[in-house]
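Technical annex B. To support the medicinal chemistry partners, we prepared a structural model of the target in complex with 1-deoxynojirimycin, based solely on the information shown next.
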Amino acid sequence: MDKKALETLLSDMSTEEKVMQLVQIPGSEYEADAEITGVERGQVKESVKRLAGSTLGIWGSKRLKKIQEQYMKEHPHHIPLMFMLDVIHGHKTVLPCPLGQGASFDPEAVRKGAAMQAKEAAADGVHATFSPMADLCRDARWGRIMESTGEDKLLNSRMAAAMVEGYQGEDLKDSAHIAACVKHFAAYGAAEGGRDYNNTELSEHTLREHYLRAYGEAIKKDPVMVMTSFNSINGIPATGNTFLMKKVLREEFGFKGVLISDWGAVGEMINHGYAEDRKDAALKGMMAGVDIDMCSGCYSAHLEELVNSGAVPMKLLDEAVLRVLNMKNELGLFEDPFRGIDTDAGPVISEESRNLAREAAAAGLVLLENKGKALPLRKEKNAFIGPYADTKRLQSSWAFSGDDENTVSLWEAALELYGPEALKTAAGCTMLDQDAVTARGQRHVDHWQEENDRLLTEAVSAAEWADTVILCLGEDSAQSGEATSKASLKLPAVQLRLLSEIKKTGKRIVTLVFTGRPLELMEVRELSDALMICWLPGTEGGHAVLDVISGKRSPSGRLPVSFPYTVGQEPLHYDIYPTGRPKPENGPFEYTSRYLDCENGALYPFGYGLSYTSFEYGGEKLSAQKMSAPESITASVKVRNTGDMRGDVTVQLYIRDVCASRVRPVRELAGFRKISLDPGAEEEVSFVINEEMLRFWTAEEKWESEAGKFLVWICDSSSAGKPLEFRLEGRA
Ligand code: NOJ
C-alpha cells in the first residue's frame, strides 16, 4: 500500500477502530497454551479482542494462521493482526544469552545470529521481536544484566545496532525478517540497588553520555519499534516522560517508528504516583507519545472517551495509528497477512543454525584462570561433575520458544568427543540451595539434605577415579532475567561445598561457571586450576564448551562486564569518573577514595580474557601528537602471537580526556577489533581517532569536544597498557 492508501484507510476507520490499533493484548486470549507469565486469560472483553491491533507471546505457523483468518474475517476493515514475541537470543535454535554474545566482541557474528533468529521466528508467524535490549548495565545484582551486552556504551551500541540490522535485514517485506524493537527506553539498567522495576536517578550528563548512547546508535539503524521502560527516571516514569520520548527519542534521535509501552507500564503510572487513575494513565501515556499500550488495558478502556472529549486531540491519535498501520504495511501484511507461514511446518533447527549457535557460544567463553595450563584437557581420565555437567537447561529464562530437548548438554558433547571409557559424570549437588527462590518461585527438592549428601559422596568417588575434574557450577538459568534481582552474588552454598570437598581429593580442577550475571569468584579462583565463564550458552552449549576445553579452539571471549571481588562494590564499572583523592598505586592509602577491606577495581575487569596462546603488544604509536578537527589521528599497535596455537585476540582502544569543563571518565572504550593470528604471526591493528569521538555533554549542555590533552591506550583490557598522549587543538 502506498502512503495515500494508508491515509484513506485511516480516514475510513471509526474512532474505536483507531484506538484499538493502539491496543496490544496477551496471546493467551487467543490460545490457552500461549506462554505468558502471570497472566490470567479471559481478562479482555470480546469487543477488544476482535479489534486489538496486536498481540504478543504466541507463535506457531498453524495456530497463528487460524487466529489471523478468524480475526481478519471479523475486522471491519480486514486489517491484519500483528504478532509480537520476545525472541531475545533465539527462537528454536537458542544462541548464548546476550551477555554471552557481548563477550564475543564480534558485532558481525551477532548480526548473523539475529538474522537466524528472525528467519526461524518469521517461519513461525512472528512479525516483531522485543529485542535488542540496549540498556547499559553496571549492576550485577540486576537480573536483567543477562539480557544486555554489558556495561560499556560502545560495545552495547555496536551490538544493538548489529541486532537491529540482523532482525530487519534490508527489506522488511522479505518474510525471512522481522521488526526489531529497541528497549527499554530509558535507563532501565540503572535501577537503584539493582532491584528490578526500581527507580532511576541520573544526572543529565551521565544519562546522555552513557545510558542513552546505545539506544541512539541502534535507532540509527531504523528499528521499527522502541519500547518504554518500567522505571521512573529523575522522578518521572519513563512511560509518561515527554523529555525522553518527545525531545530525545523523536526530536534528537529522529525516531519515526512505533513506540510501545512495556507490559502494563501505562497502568503502572498509577502505582508510581504519577497518574490518578486508569483514565489519567491513558491520557499521560498518550500525551507523552506512547503509541501502543502493551496489555495495561488503559487505552482500550479510556482512550476513545479521551479523544471524544477533546482531551486527546484526534490528530495525535491519527498520527499514532498511522505509525502502526505503516508498520503493518512495511511488514507486507496488507499484501500477505500470512507472511512467512504459507506452510504449516514451521521452522526446523537446521545444521546451519546449529553451527552458528555453536560458533557464537564458543566465541563468548571467557577464560579467567589457567594455572599450570590445566586447559586444554589432557587425554586422561576426566570427570564432569556438578549440576551443569549433565543438564539440557543451558538456555535462559528468555528463551521460552526454544526447547531444552534440542539442547546438547556438556555430558553428551563429552561422550561424543571422547567416548565413554575415560569419562565419568556426577551431579554432585542440587542446582540451588534449599531456600533459594527463582523468579517463578522455589524449586523444591524433597529430602534436600539427604539428597545432597548422597550426590556429594557419588561425586567425590568420581573425582577420586579421575585425573581432572571439570566442575560445572553456576546459577540456575531462572535466576537471571526479569524479576531476578539478587543481593548476593555468590554461587549457591551447596555448590561451594562441592568445590571444597572435591579440592580435598587433590585432583586438578577446571571450573566452568554458567551464569547470566557477574558473580563473586574469589573462593572459586583459589580452589580451581582453571576457571572459565560459560554464560548460558544455548542450544549448542555442550558442543561449544567441549570445542574450547578440549583445545579444538582457543578461548577468545572477553568480559563485557566487570566481575567484582564482592557484591559491596556494585554498581561496578571501569569507566568511572576520577575523584579528588584517587587511590595511589603504591600507597600511602589513608584518606584516599578506597574501601578499607577491598580493592576499588574489579577482580576481573571489563575487556579481560585469556587464551591458550599468548599475544605480545608492541610499537604502540599515534600518527601525530596534535590534532584539530576535521583531522584525525591513527593509533596503532603490532600484535604478535607468541604462543604455539592459532588464536583470536580483541585489541582495545581506550581514551581519556584529561581535563574538561565537566569531569570525564578515567578511560572509555573508543574502539575494538578482533583478529585471528597463527603462531608466530604479527598484525598491525590501527584505529582512527577523530574529533567526533571526543565529544561529550559539556558544562554548557552541548555535545562538543574541548581542546586539551588526551590519553590513549591500545591494549588488552580496561586495566592494561601504558598511555600515549595527544592534544586536540583549535576549540576553546
Ligand atoms: C516485560 C519485559 O520488561 C519486556 O522486556 C518484554 O519485552 C515484555 N514484558 C513482553 O514480554
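Notes passed to the chemistry partners:
The radius of gyration is 26 Å.
The longest helix spans residues 448-465.
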